[in-house]
Amino acid sequence: NMKGVKEVDTWQLGYGYIGVNAKYITSLSGRRAIMAAMDTTLATNYYREGTVATIYWPMSLVSWAYPRTAGNELDPSDYRLNKEDNNGKDYAKAMSETRRVELIKKYTEAAKKEGMTNFKVTFTIAGSSLTEHPCYTVFQNAQKLLNENGWNVTVQPDTQALTKLATGSLQVWAAAWGSTIDPDMYQVYHKNSTATSVLAWGYPHLIANGTTTEQGYLNNLAKLIDKGRTSLDQTERAQTYKEAMGYVLDLAIELPVYQRKTMHGININVIDESTLPTNINPYNSPLSRIWEIKMK
After folding, report:
1. Fewer CB near the last or first residue (10 Å), C or N of the chain?
2. pLDDT at position 79, please?
């Protein structure tokens, strides 16, 4: 702590994820092999201890809809408590490297049977520097494991990554979402959404040329998202979204990685601390009632 600077931290609303575009990796098993290679716990090394958590569902930990082992009880001071880590997908879990290699082999063989012949894939880190990203070590490690098992993976930085993402022209990438108070999944995951995210996932390919299995996942996902929008019962909605997130993971288009904290530094030599909001949380920053803040 610098003299007179008070530090207030809260969990961030959004979360970091790794995306895989079905337009380029058309084999479902191929996408699962890529995910099996990703040790997402490596991303947490980038942050200070206690300021980051590994997540296993495509949802902000801060949301009431993030699956929890003991109902939806939230300890407001630590969103990592009783979160559910078992998403039921063997390729999207914490596991040993030996197990990862077994799964890479299993899914790569299955991908060949699904007609995948080109195992040359580019992993993109947004920005000008490779190393200045929490997912760099995740990508680097996955590249090594995949390349030792018949793949040809390149990891590269790209300053145009976000523009390319909006047109659906990246194969595998690392990025982060912002979230809102309501966990409505329509815009990001519904097959009828007009948002650019559906291009990034490769939905146009899945809708036109996806396998019966993939189209089944997409349709079930859409039904559950629609259902989640019609209910006002929070417990029921949480269960609906959990099932929907299961289909997102089944499609192997988004791998959840980490949730981090936001730190606010407040110079209490300058600001009258008693005029700051009393409840600073992910939905309420120190500036949320800026008109009430007074200088000393």
Report:
1. N
2. 67
